[in-house]
Design brief:
Layout: E1 2-3, H1 9-21, H2 27-44, E2 49-56, E3 59-66, H3 86-93, E4 96-102, E5 105-113
Antiparallel strand pairs: 1-2, 2-3, 3-5, 4-5
Length: 114
């Protein structure tokens, strides 16, 4: 799914994922992870942005592609900071996460146990 390169993208991505997984017991955690990854792409990487979901059994893989080749880095944030917690949230809620280079930049992915 292509994503717009603006502040509407996280909501669009959440609604698309929610349409399929709204009844899952951990839907709120899944939607938060989607929102964080898409927000990071829009804020820190160039367009085009896209969202891709794939499922193998009980494991859902979510990928957000962007045009920035540099991989995200999990850093320690100031507890008083109002931003910078997206990867920390992902690290806590997802089964695992990472990034991989693509022809046009990178894809940040996470796996979520359904």
């Amino acid at each position: 799914m292509p994503l717009t390169p603006d502040a509407l993208a996280p909501g669009d991505a959440r609604r698309a994922v929610e349409a399929r997984f709204a009844t899952h017991p951990r839907a709120a955690d899944l939607l938060l992870c989607v929102s964080e990854v898409v927000t990071n792409a829009v804020r820190h990487a160039g367009p085009p942005h896209s969202l891709r979901l794939s499922q193998a059994g009980d494991l859902l893989r979510v990928e957000v592609a962007d045009a920035e080749p540099q991989a995200p880095i999990l850093t320690q944030q100031d507890p008083l900071s109002t931003s910078g917690r997206g990867l920390r949230i992902l690290d806590q809620l997802a089964t695992r996460w990472g990034s991989e280079p693509t022809e046009d930049g990178k894809a940040v992915w996470f796996e979520f146990e359904l």
